[in-house]
Each structure stands twice: as structure tokens, then as C-alpha cells.
Amino acid sequence: MKPVLVPTTDVNSETGLLVAWHAGDRSEVQADEVIAEIETSKAIFDVPAPEAGTPLTFLVYGDTRFTRRDGVANAFARRALVERMAHEKPAAVFIGGDLVYEGSDPDDYEVYKAETVEWSKQRIPVFPALGNHEFRTCSDDVSPCLENWWNTFPALRPYRWYSVTIGATLRAVVLDSNSRLRKGSEQRAWLEQQISSADADPRIKFILVTLHYPPVRDAFYPSMLDEKEVARYFAKKAHTLRAQVVVVGSHVHNYERYYRDGVTYLVSGGGGAKPVPAIRLFGELSKLHTSVNYHYIRFSLEGDRLSGTMVRFDAAEGSADPWSEPDHFEVKAKN
Questions:
Q1: Pairing of strands 56-61, 92-95
Q2: Distance in angstroms (rounded) separating the CA atoms of residues 268 and 131
Q3: Which of 32, 95, 180, 186 has the fewest CB atoms within 10 Å, counting from its CB?
Q4: How far apart are alpha carbons 123 and 91 in whole angstroms?
């Protein structure tokens, strides 16, 4: 008797749960016959490493608010950032939520597809996190909003959080700020499992966490849900890990950088949404003097170094050169 092998899919999953068996107690089945239904765990995606000696570049930002509506985003700045990012030819793009303005409106996603067509031509993988605007006007029933998100990113269905292996040395964990992250919740258990899995892999030198609500940010802005649970978890856990941890949130439409309890925390919400001020107190490290900061973060992974650069676009009319790189930082592997 030959064993039944579970086929692979376009998404590699860690485990599977047998939820239905359709073959009864038969000892023989036909080719292509559906004999079982298997529910997989949260998905793991892969971004391959470049040739030896070549840095791996990926980009992170959030709060793009793709839409045709007036007054909720600077479409000129949003398109400029998208175009500049395409010229970078990154290995991947991570978007920290609020991709669209109104998650219930399929047309907002069509605007995203139209404005990022160059990304599609280059086959740049895009890994979005769910933000609060992905659920805008879906307070009573989130399923229409999730359908629009999954229809745009079909490989993510049915997941709301997932992980990505970047090259051979970085594990990225994409969380859903709208779902619980407190101890005992499903997402928290999965997060802890992912961190333990990464820590057990001797190749992993860096862990990147992306989510919409930033766990560390200007104290002027209140907490939204459970995002501070991420900071509390890493305050106890980070020093025990072999890998360095970088956490990037969005939601606040500006740029901030902090270092807390051995973890680099960033706020990257300058993808086009209406800007908000940053007071830059309480240990903020970038010390930017500009109040409006449309931007993205360029990460370069090379050997034992993960370097980051804030790439800023000045949307003001008359700027001779609207592009600048006012903040740089580097995270070195522990060993």
C-alpha cells in the first residue's frame, strides 16, 4: 500500500489540519480524486537570495491610501514614491496597512493596481499588512472588505497574518493589528511560534516585524488596540534571541525611529496619506526637522548587516531636487 502524500501549493505551509476525509474506509482511490480537505497554518512565503556578494534590497512603507477621492491623500506624492520604488528594483515591497482609503470599495484596489502597474511588470512581490482602512465601512461584517483584499492578493487567502523568508538570513513576520495580540490569542501564539522557529534556525540573523499600529511611537498618539503587546513581548524576549529584531509600524503619517530594549522600532506612514506632525520627544532618534515626510524605507541586507535609509520626497512645488535621504541606520547581527 502506497502512502498518500499531501501535494504542495503555491504557498508553503508549516503544518496542516485534516478537517474532512472523503474516502471512507476504502483502501484504493482514483487519481485526481478529492479524498481530504486540509486546513493549513499561516502561510510562509519566500523571497530568494540574490547572487553571492550582491546586497538584497527590499522596501517598507505604509498609509498609501490608494483612492480617487480628494482630500484624503496626496496622489502626486503617492505616485512619485511608487515610481521611485520601481526604479530601485527591490526584491520585495512591504506595505504596513491602509493600502486603500475604503476597504469596502473595490475601486480603491483598482487604483492601487493601476498606479503600481510597473511593480507588476517587474514581478515585484508585495506583502501587505491589514490596517484599519482595509476595514473602513465594514464594521458590522468584515467579510466584504477581506474579500477585496484577498482578491487583490490571492496568494494570501485565507490568511490575515503570515511570514516571509527574505534571502537566507531574515524572517519577516506580517501581523494584523485589527486582531488580538494579547497573550493567549491565536495571533499571539502564532507570533511566538514564528519567533521560536526563527531562533531555532542558525541561518536567521534578523527578524522583521511589520504591522499597522506601531508598538513604539510618539506618545502624543494613543494606543489603538494591542500593538503595545508586541513591545512588551520583545522587551522580555529580544535579549534572549540570536537574531536582531526590527519592528516597523505605520498608521502615524510621518517617520520616526527608536531603539528600545534591544529592538529597533520604526514608524513609516508616509506613503501618501494626509500628513500629521511628529513631536520627536522621548528618545526619537532621527531628529528630522521637516514636518511633512512622504517617504519609504530602503533596507539593504548584506552579510551580517541590515542597513536602513529613509528616502524622502518633498511634494512642495518648486523643489529643485525633491529627493533626499535624511536618516540612515544600521543593525549588525549578534554573531
A1: parallel
A2: 13
A3: 32
A4: 9
The 10s digit of each residue's pLDDT in 208-250 is 999 999 999 987 777 788 999 999 999 999 999 999 999 999 9
Judge if the upstream peptide bond of residue 158 is cis by omega within 30 degrees of 0: yes
Q: Helices then strands (H, E): number in the chain? A: 6, 16
Three-state SS at 154: helix
- Report yes or no: 98 and 63 within 8 Å, Cβ to Cβ: yes
Judge contact between 326 and 286, C-beta under 8 A.
yes
- Omega before residue 322 within 30° of 0, cis: no
Q: Whole-angstrom Cα distance, residue 264 to residue 246?
A: 5
Q: Give the DSSP H or E segment for 234.
A: helix 227-237
Which residue intervals of 12-74 are DSSP H helices?
A: none
Residues ≥6 apart with Cβ < 8 Å to 245: 206, 207, 209, 234, 238, 262, 263, 264
C-alpha grid cell, residue 183: 497573550
DSSP state of 205: -
